[in-house]
Amino acid sequence: MATNNYNKIFGVKRSIWSSAGYYAQDNETQEQYRLDIAEAEECKPEDLTEDQLDDFWYQDNEYNYEAEQTNLNEHIDGCIIALAHRWSHYGAICGNGREATKIVGSCIADILSSTGDSAEWWAEDYNINGRTGDHDGSWSITYRVCKDQYEAERLQALAMMGQLDNSDIMARTKSLYPYIAKIYGWPYRGSKKAAAA
Length: 197
Fold this sequence. Notes:
The chain is α+β, with helices and mostly antiparallel strands. It has helices spanning 3-10, 27-41, 50-71, 149-160, 166-171, 177-184, 192-196, and strands at residues 14-18, 75-88, 99-107, 118-124, 127-134, 137-146, 174-175.
């Protein structure tokens, strides 16, 4: 497959879920959302306050989060490992550039967990990515698949001893993207959608 074709199919960002509020959306999305809520609430769009719209957005996002957990509630043959990279607002003093690994398990829905104030998950460049943020900074995460729990634990232990970094683990694991692509109907390598593009 040619590089341009690959970028056209897999280089696009496909959103899974985001905690971004109403104000984080572009003007066109905000306006369409205002019109949709006004229709549902049987009122004029201009009668809706910004606080009301933000509350509706929050409720819808919570509903969508639960729906995505249900969509992704499938077990895979293997073990998911999260490869994280820390970005801090305060630089090196708060661990800027620090790497970490976490074993997620075999259920895809378990990637949708966050202890931060904000979170987002998406597919891009044939990988499943995440970002969680708090008042100190954020973690950028890539989710990969190991052949089993034992292999995930072995790679994590080697990373903790400084013998492997995230790029080494990327090379020793496979992408989670095809598993999620099959659920959502996205193209993946070997699929009819990818072949037709």
